[in-house]
Design goal:
This protein is α/β, with parallel strands linked by helices and about 325 residues long. It has ten helices and 13 strands. Helices cover about 30% and strands about 25% of the residues. It has an eight-stranded mixed beta sheet, with helices on both faces. A five-stranded mixed beta sheet has the order 2-1-3-4-5. Pathway: Cofactor biosynthesis; riboflavin biosynthesis; 5-amino-6-(D-ribitylamino)uracil from GTP: step 3/4; Cofactor biosynthesis; riboflavin biosynthesis; 5-amino-6-(D-ribitylamino)uracil from GTP: step 2/4.
């Protein structure tokens, strides 16, 4: 039901569900970060919930728990079609039925055969169930991952205004300002893993952690992954201190990450690794942090690519451009 007209109360409920989903990012994989909101029979917000870490309640159950008896005769607004599958928890579609929900609106259809069928189950029990076909930013990496059968990959780099990621001496730190760096750490906390190449690990000795402006660690940390065959013993001190996993190839890394539950990964370099992902069209999104600096000379963010013929398959679509102080974050998406 594309173009479904929501009431003002339903729009507010959808926004509440989307905010709950965003807050769950980075905690739910391999399950999707879903948000749900319950309106009572009079259209008043009665409960909001998000998917808990694996083994915990799904978003609908969390929202129903908060709503209690006020859910009966009400409307559930969910960012993803309620599941009709029994895994570690029971089917959300049945939980909505048992709670007496009269109507279910969901932003995106369930893409997997295993958990699908929730809307049909509800309709067969006399409950209205409608898909809104609304984009949910928090869900997009998981949805792409589910379709492709591998983790969603975002390639991220920082560069000067004249296109260099490192200066002539090979140094790359602090191209961007404080607000951009703070945003990077907020974003890292929402990812399942951060991936770098052995060249970056050896040259920069990165910690690959999500930190607050005062340097303290955020509550959730992504997995630290290094790709490449070079040994890191005795050189990459931060990674050895904090712990990391190493894989020889991109394929090996993506396969291992997928099998172990990762669905949303951030590739932070270096240029050869990013070039390797791009050359095989394994990049689903790009984050380019552009700093108002002119390095005049240096190294680019991507290496090892041959010049492609310009065509639709080589182009990305602009998603957003966000000022961060004097820096600019430009985000692009591949059509998947």
């Amino acid at each position: 039901m594309a173009g479904y007209d929501l009431s003002p109360a339903e729009e507010r409920a959808l926004h509440a569900a989307e905010a709950a989903a965003e807050g769950a990012r980075g905690t739910t994989s391999p399950n999707p970060p879903v948000g749900a909101a319950i309106l009572d029979a009079d259209g008043r917000l009665a409960g909001v919930g998000a998917t808990h870490p694996p083994g915990g309640p799904h978003a609908e159950v969390a929202a129903l728990s908060e709503a209690g008896d006020r859910a009966r005769g009400g409307t559930a607004v969910v960012t993803l079609e309620p599941c009709n599958h029994t895994g570690r928890t029971g089917p959300c579609a049945e939980a909505l039925l048992e709670a007496g929900i009269a109507r279910v609106l969901f932003a995106q259809p369930e893409p997997t055969g295993l958990a699908g069928g929730g809307a049909d189950f509800l309709r067969s029990r006399g409950i209205e169930a409608a898909c809104l076909h609304r984009d949910v930013p928090a869900l997009r990496p998981w949805l792409v991952s589910a379709r492709l059968g591998r983790p969603h990959v975002t390639a991220k780099w920082a560069q000067s205004l004249d296109g260099f990621a490192r200066d002539h001496a090979g140094k790359s730190q602090w191209i961007t300002g404080e607000r951009a760096r703070a945003f990077v750490h907020e974003d890292r906390e929402k990812r399942d893993a951060i991936v770098v190449g052995t060249g970056t690990a050896l040259a920069d000795d990165p910690s690959l952690t999500a930190r607050r402006p005062d340097g303290s660690l955020r509550s959730r940390q992504p997995r630290r992954v290094v790709v490449g065959r070079r040994g890191l013993d005795g050189v990459a001190g931060n990674l050895h201190r904090l712990g990391f996993e190493q894989h020889s190839t991109i394929d090996e890394a993506l396969s291992s990450l997928w099998e172990s539950g990762a669905r949303d990964v951030l590739v932070e370099g270096g240029p050869t690794l990013i070039g390797g992902f791009l050359s095989r069209w394994l990049v689903d999104a790009v984050q380019a942090y552009i700093a108002p600096a002119l390095l005049i000379d240096g190294l680019g963010a991507v290496a090892g690519l041959s010049a492609p013929d310009l065509g639709e398959e080589t182009r990305l679509r602009l998603h957003s451009a966000t000022p961060l102080g004097d820096d600019l974050l430009v985000e692009y998406r591949a059509e998947r």
